[in-house]
Amino acid sequence: MSRSHFARLRLAAAVLSFCIFLAPSARPQVMDGRLEVRVIDPSGQGVPAALELVSRSLQFVAGAVADAEGRATLHRIPPGTYMLTARHEGFETAERRVALRSAVPRVVEIALSVATVREEVTVRAPAPLFEPYRPSQGTRSGRDDLEQALGTTLGRSTVDMVTGMPGWLLEANAVLHPRGSEYDTQYVIDGMPLYDNRSIAFAPAFENSEFEAVTVLTAGIPAEYGRRLGGVIALDTRRSAIPGHRTSLDAQGGSYATRIGAFSHQYASGGTELTIGIQGGATDRYLDPPSLENFTNRGSSGGGNARFARDLTSRQRLTGYARTNRTNFLVPNALLQQEAGQRQDRRSSETAGQVHYQGTLSRRTLVSVRGMARDLTSELWSNELSTPVYVLQDRGFSQGVVMADVTFEGERHTLKIGGDIRSSGLRERFLMAEPDELPDFDLDFRDRQRSTEASFYAYDQLRAGNFAASIGFRFDEYRLLISDRALSPRLAASYFVPPAGLQLYASYDRIFQPPPTENLLLSSAATGLGLDAVEDGLAVPANKGHFIEIGMRKPIGGAMRIDAKHYWRQFQNYIDDDVFLNTGLSFPITFDSAAIEGTEVRIEAPRWKGISAFASYSNLLGRARSPVTGGLFVEGGEAEELRDVAEEFPISQDQRNTVATTVRFQIHPRVWASFGIRYGSGLPVEQEDDDDDDGDDEGDGDDDGDDDDDGDDQAQPVPEAILRKVNFSRSRVRPNLSLDFSVGSRVWERGSKSATLQFDLRNATNRLNVINFSGLFSGTALAPGRQATVQLRVRF
After folding, report:
1. 3-class secondary structure, 643
2. What is the mean pLDDT, run by run of 10 residues, along the chain of 796 residues?
3. Across 465-559, where does the E strand assignment appear?
4. Element (H, E) at 641
5. Which of 343, 647, 667, 678 could in theory staple to 738 by disulfide, Cβ–Cβ 3.0 to 4.6 A?
6. Does pTM top 0.85 for this prediction?
């Protein structure tokens, strides 16, 4: 797409935003809502009925039993449209459609009529397949999907759920790239955003056993989210839905000596909920190795979490959540490193605690205050046989966050105003030496810096007939090595055509993304450290851009839904990364600009006659343009090669076609089977001696993995099996394909107690899939071969 064309689209979006007077929103369904229900009989007396709340669009089910006065409260409900059902012996079943637009508590009354003898069959309307009056909607996987997901190696279960959604590309070491972005993934844990790189080589991983739902959003992003906007992944921790004690045990074992276990216990009583959990595991294939032999690739992890929630009064609720995790693993060697006897160890640890207060000021006004303290550490150390260099690193940060917002809900509008302030203390220590010169070091770097980030936002949600919109703005200020600020408008609008059951929608997001912090202090100071290979450096600027999306949603036959969209993204100071000397450690760089365009389609059948299925397709075309506008210029590095060159080349995530599909069959009420396909057409390859190469693929198969420490200058033999997986004439890795199967059974069930056994087979054909091949001598990363897994889940 030409720049003039994009400029016209941007102008049209701006005009549209001003034409709308005020602007349901595209929140990634954070589970903050509360529904207060009263069930009455024909005389107005309370009935202790059983309640069920169902949303097919969100794949969400919640239940409760009303007390003797007919009252029940359902907590942690995501915004959406639901079917509320009340049942009690002697009364007709009653249904009511309920819409929750925000976290403001909703109060509903449902009346039961006395049962009569009937011969006719009553056909009840099902819950809606999608939200016809919500302009931008995330893609969500609920608890059933998370529990029945195929087993995988340590640290990848949650990432694997996201890669089944359109627009998300997986590179080496479980690094997620939303719509061609490098560092721009934002995680949100129970409403608290995290902006750092969550590659399993940088930070302890998230696992499905801890969460109720995973929701992703890539466009129409509300103004409360900022700083990392390539894609938002909202993770909601498990709900304590049933009064009393509930215990869950999960165990998994399989290929690559993988063994993973998790335990959680939940207690709920009245307005009090408590959840505690522990998890741990180990595997002989933690990262994606550069060699077929999978040298030195062991990893282990362990940690725990706790969540406490209590109703202080009928109008106030306090929630606390804490988690701590640690991961230890070895960096996988290339062949020459293995022969030399290299061993490199890595450790990442994280401890975080957050508190959330919600107070209802009036029937339509809610105030919310959140706070978080967190510390993250990443360490690397080598033995004296390491090649080509000996490295030692200890980096991380301590962070404090305060967020507050107030929500006003009216008949046609929902207005939300808020902001946050975030202070982070960054620390970096890095030592480097030639192995034969130890204990003398060529570089001994230590530094500490403090960053401050603040934001203010406001947005309004509007519905007028079949038209719905969300309009808002966000102001960000950032201070670390640079200072910058930006005002970012956000707009999403939709129109629902009832006769066709069709929703048309469009969105515009202006984005502001501060520089990534990974090794930022080292790379920014390297020009003054006296290293011969370091030629110069530029401060890494903030990344700014414009996102536009148009699309349609429609149910198919009452059992399926289709969501098709096309998007354009344009960046100024496009973020990528480069490798620091021969260490394999990456640091951020920026290119002058980038333009990314793509189409995504997802067809989904939540449940139809014992079948549930989805199919996702993504097409992407991404081009970046040099020169380099920020970062370190290292001799032989990508930034140095493109320092003064103005040229256009594919971005490193330029995989043109990506497909993910899964079909699940309920063979018997207690037995199911599934079949799935994952396909990718292949990433670009940087060839060493081709001036037309895409200088974007910088040997980072890895990039975020830091594990490709085989980036030395010695020629290493590359097996023919790997070379056959690279199309050198097209400068691309050949397509990858995985056929996956699963079968499971609830082998024992008594009331709410059960035991489930599941057998999974990934990459059943044992196909060799190359993720990255960034040159003949470095940057190669291989996907797992055939993986067989057995999972056991016990609930009591």
Report:
1. coil
2. 46 39 46 88 91 84 89 88 90 89 88 72 62 87 91 94 92 90 92 92 92 93 93 91 89 97 93 94 95 95 96 93 97 91 95 96 94 96 92 96 95 93 96 89 94 96 92 96 96 95 96 94 88 86 96 90 96 89 82 96 89 95 94 79 87 93 94 96 76 38 39 63 93 96 96 94 97 68 96 96
3. 467-479, 483-497, 502-513, 534-538, 543-556
4. helix 638-641
5. 678
6. yes
